[in-house]
# Entry
Amino acid sequence: MLESLPASQWNAATAAHLLNRAGFGGSPREIENIRQMGLAKAVSWLVDYEKIPDETPAPDWAHPDPEVDARHEAIRKAADPETRRMLQEQENQEQNSQMADLRYWWVRRMALGPRPFQEKMTLFWHGHFATSYEKVRMPYFLWLQNETLRRHATGNFDDLLIAASEDPAMLLYLDGARSRKGNPNENFAREVMELFTLGEGHYTEQDIQQAAKAYTGWGLSEDHLHYQYHPYNHDDGPKTIFGQTGNLTGEEVLKLICAKPECAQFIARKIWRFFAQDQPSQPVVDALVDEFHGHNMDIKHLMKVIFLAKEFYAPDVIRSQIKSPVQWLIASTHQLQAPLPTQPMSLVMLRGLGEELFNPPNVKGWDGGIAWITTNNLLDRYNYAAALVEGDRVPLPGLKGQMKSLMNAMAEDGLMVIAPADVRSLFSTMELSDPMNFLAALQARFLNAELRPQRAASLADFLKSRSPLEDADIRKAIRLVMCTPEYQLT
Amino acid sequence: MKNPLLTTRRDFLRTTLLGGALSWTVPSFVAQTFSALHAEADGALTQTPTGTDGPILVLIQLAGGNDGLNAIVPYTNDFYYQARPTIAIPSGQVLTLNDTLGLNPAMTGFKSLFDAGQLSVVNGVGYPNPNRSHFRATEIWQTASDEDKYLSDGWLGRYFDNACQGCDPTVGINIGPRLPQAFSSHTPTGITLENPDSYRFIGTGKNDDETVAYRSMYAQQDDPLASSSANSGASVSMVSGTVMLQNGQSALDFLERTSMDAQVSSDKIREITSKTPSTSQYPRTALARNLQLVARLIAGGLPTRVFYVSQGGYDTHTGQRYGQDARLRELSEAVKAFTDDLTSMREFDRVMIMTFSEFGRRVHENGSQGTDHGAAAPMFLVGRHLKPGLLGAEPSLAPADLQDGDIKFNTDFRSVYASILQDWLKTNPVPILGRPFPTLPVVT
# Structure
């Protein structure tokens, strides 16, 4: 049993931590808002999000497209290679533009929507039930899966697993839609046990081969627009899984899997790692497993237990994680109180930093932790920080190629690609009056912690040389804080 | 310590104030200074393997599980044609290597390397109790572990730890977005690079005060003696983010170290790429572009021993002929362009290329014109100093000889690693691989 955080330890630091982990961070004012609520109310505000209306409209193209088969047929039957190429190109362009729209639609919802925790949880499930545009190719199906994950984000895990498994994007991504009686495809059968529920070592090769038979029959409708069960493709013979034999259906196999204690163990551990710390302690995981298993795999219950627990606010949890690129981007805009960069800029950044939504590196999703960081994308973080702070007021010589042409194209249309942050409004006159005051204010707003001494000294030297501070100096100083190892932690 | 001379103020500071954290918090060249100090004191300067004319290994990962049977086709084997009614490659189409084996018809570049005596194929490579999970199997290949052992460091990481202590961070270069586990090492070594043009800190505004401040945030540590005195060693652990992850590193140590390696290596790489423009023709594929960058870095004289590039798309559960053939064509054309480029720059003599994939695929095709995850498969080696042709026994496809429908291995992949480490990189493979493995006569 985990203990609740004592009220005496609920303060600006712990409130900031909760907002960082359950959501995507916040400005000092937003942190103060939830601090004033008190812990229980703050957790409820985040987790019981059903009470908060979210009327985010679906993207306008997000509906079944009855023409899609006809268009694909036209491409296949094109009279000559030139026409085929042209038609294919048109189709790709349309799909790519829908994908860009979908990615930004979600980033905006994470950054600006009324239910940050629902989006954070959906992001967790997106990495867990990973599917990729690279293989699925149908933006509508990826949106549909995103909505499925959002709908079940804090429900019962069994229901979520079945819904995610029968979702068209998953059927396409792990070849379930092509698996037939007599010739089952094992791709989904393997990954569901290895990656979605149990983890390696808790099943046999035979369990996979037998389970693959049970999932046959799941597929898409004739018009390829929605899920449909095809009884004539289903292998209704006996299967032996985990030593039990029966004419099991796919759903029944998934329920058998969920009932294994290793499933609660695997999911609770992964959730704690994502929301709390990379290296969990076993007693904490055990306590979470008891809660999760004891409450019928209810995800919402588990999340409340986590966010209320003293262990969640321990010194080795707070600021122990490396920000994901999505976290880095959105939390930065909150701290800068700046608008989210426009679509092309936001998407170029997320792709560059290694978290292009709907395109995880593989079926395992994103590894997270130190895997976010290489010499290459750390330099990218440092350079994109300049773009967030300076906007396109200052040319960024290194941001060439795609980024540059996008910026030029938007500038021709009279659009600001990214506005410079209004940095002076972030600080009081007092804070700006003295370099050391300003250094303290910078660290409070952007780190909730202190820089290591050598970097604090470098920054202090820079600020002393610039006194009194112009707006340009403030921007440079903020950018420099964002170019530190400390800033990459959350 | 062997030598009493080591008990100097420097050593005292290094061992007591910085302690084990040294390797995490100072850039590699500083650590190198220390190694040199040690070596000097020992009276025997150990040659670190970071010369600019030493041997180079270029590792190409074929991610997803490359089907060996449709890459090196047993075109006279009835079992092959029986097992694959829709996706077998007709015998008339293969690029013959000998009386029984031929290359996939898409691999014309490899065929010309084979004809020039610059390609060798190691048949039937695998390991006991093969794992069919992408991740676990990849991990086994990357860490060179036994099937039932879990290692966190990669086999190249252990090579860096063993043979390259104090080397420049560019001793290992990964071209691509993510650091492969093969590079994971006790002392983080190696860098990741995608686009050399933007691989640097970019200052804004007219004057460079911002860049100066950025450099000074890290530059103080150019001299660890100075900075350790200034910090008194104590405040470091007081900063948040110092929770230990693994190998005694905290996330903040890791980030700090990576920042410093990034700064040091970016200066060097920018200098090299600006003075060595590439003039050779390469195909317009990501793999070819990455190998072209490798060629420029080799020509520019980086002290790199290992380059790592990867190519995805080999997980051909469906429509394999379309997918795998296209990938193999990309691979074959890119490697051919790369070797042509190296030849024209007179660098091919010191480069060895090796491919690997986490597993081969099931002998029998599935119901979707594809193949499911399998076991043993061939590896390709390309270079001017290898025994060309076919190495290792060709595995039997007779149903009785298969293991759960998969090809049994004849050569342990660690034997190939051991051969490369010992005969190409000139280092003792035993501490790196944990125990001796028989080597193959592949390097000449």
User: Anything to note?
Assistant: Chain A has 24 helices and four strands. Strands of chain A lie at 218-220, 227-229, 239-241, 244-246. The mean pLDDT of chain A is 92. Residues 7-47+261-313 of chain A form one domain.
